[in-house]
Amino acid sequence: MSIKLNGREHELSADIQNVAQLLGSLSLENRIVIVELNKEIISKSAYADQPVRDGDKVELVHFVGGG
Amino acid sequence: MQDRYRKQELFIGKEGQSRMEKSKIVLIGMGALGSASAEMLVRAGIGELVLIDRDYVELHNLQRQQLYTEEDAAAYLPKASAAAKRLKAINQHVKLQSVIENVDHHNIEQLMEGADVILDATDNFETRLLVNDAALKHGIPYLYGACVGSYGVTCPILANGDAPCLHCLLEQLPQQSETCDTAGIIGPIVQWVAAVQVTQALRLLSGQKLKAELCAFDIWTGDYSRVDVRGLRDASCPSCGMDAVLPFLNGAEQTRLDVLCGREAVHIRPGAKKSLNLPALAEEWAFAVDHVTANEHLLAFRYREHRIVLFTDGRAIIHGIDDIVRARSLYDSLVG
């Protein structure tokens, strides 16, 4: 399936079914991330329960500390 | 004198320019972001700029920290002084104050006194959450900005009782984070982050409102993302919620440092215990550290000529150093 990730088409392998797995596939599982799914922000505690479906629009911003 | 601002004035208006010249901005950190922002603000004719940094110039800074020269590095000049020297040459009319200090809960409120805007250019989350607390207490807008690798992120913290604060957004101090020392950094992303922050400052000083929006850009891949974070204000946030205690400003969350007598070493204890994944860190830091030894409790390695022992709870012992400010700087550049 494919989603729109930060405005671009992004192909997902079939085993990625929720937000937690999506973050893992992007190596962001240990980062502090704000996830917006179809214009709604998903709370951190819901990442593993929140399904990701074909055609979803996802905006991801992770925090970094350098400067 | 003011022909020099003619083109800027055409854009932001006479009143905006006049406000600029009467305004004071405090810059927390004079590394890459601080250098880039300071130069833009001084060229734009800001009234007063406070330059705060605890560190001195080193050769490996010059790749991206635009105010500094090989001479500054050879002379071990503190960044806050080297920056002022260069900025004075760019615009003699700007009032500059250099502060060569570590920002902590004892001095932050005094350092930001009278500021119209605080601009974030530090390299670690603990200082950011401290500045966040102090900015909220005094109702001063605080412009978060950070970068690592080719990725940068910004968000204005508006302290207006409506938008989320940095503590609402992060929820907690990150356990570990990438730093420029461990993940690298390229100069262009610094310029993007600083450009966004300075634009936000110009807008605020010209009387415009800012949106509580988190904005991120990877300048290598071209990926851009933007999230409206208005809904993330947390009513129970310890920094801005109903029963706010400002945990970073009151010192409860502050990292402690002690010189270990007779050992030329500094012991660092984070205010809140961490739970570090040491094998993962060892892998991430492969290019930054060497002589690595590990067991289930700790990771020992050499980093910039210092032997460092890091424990899973975030404590560290840095050998070959008795200057706690320098030790803190080394710790932050690794652990973030």
TrEMBL record, chain A:
Q: Which residues cross the membrane?
A: none
Could you name the domain of life of the organism this protein comes from?
Bacteria
A Pfam family recorded for this sequence: ThiS
Q: Which PANTHER family match?
A: SULFUR CARRIER PROTEIN THIS
| Official protein name in the record | Sulfur carrier protein
**What is the protein's species of origin?**
Terribacillus halophilus
Lineage per the UniProt record? Bacteria, Bacillati, Bacillota, Bacilli, Bacillales
TrEMBL record, chain B:
Domain of life, per lineage: Bacteria
Entry GO CC: cytosol
Checking CDD domains in the record gives: ThiF_MoeB_HesA_family
Q: Where is the THIF-type NAD/FAD binding fold domain?
A: 5-238
The family database entries (Pfam families) matched by this protein are listed as:
ThiF
GO MF annotation terms: nucleotidyltransferase activity; sulfotransferase activity; thiosulfate-cyanide sulfurtransferase activity; ubiquitin-like modifier activating enzyme activity
Q: Which UniProt keywords apply?
A: Nucleotidyltransferase, Transferase
What protein family is recorded? Belongs to the HesA/MoeB/ThiF family.
- Name it: Adenylyltransferase and sulfurtransferase
Annotated source species: Terribacillus halophilus
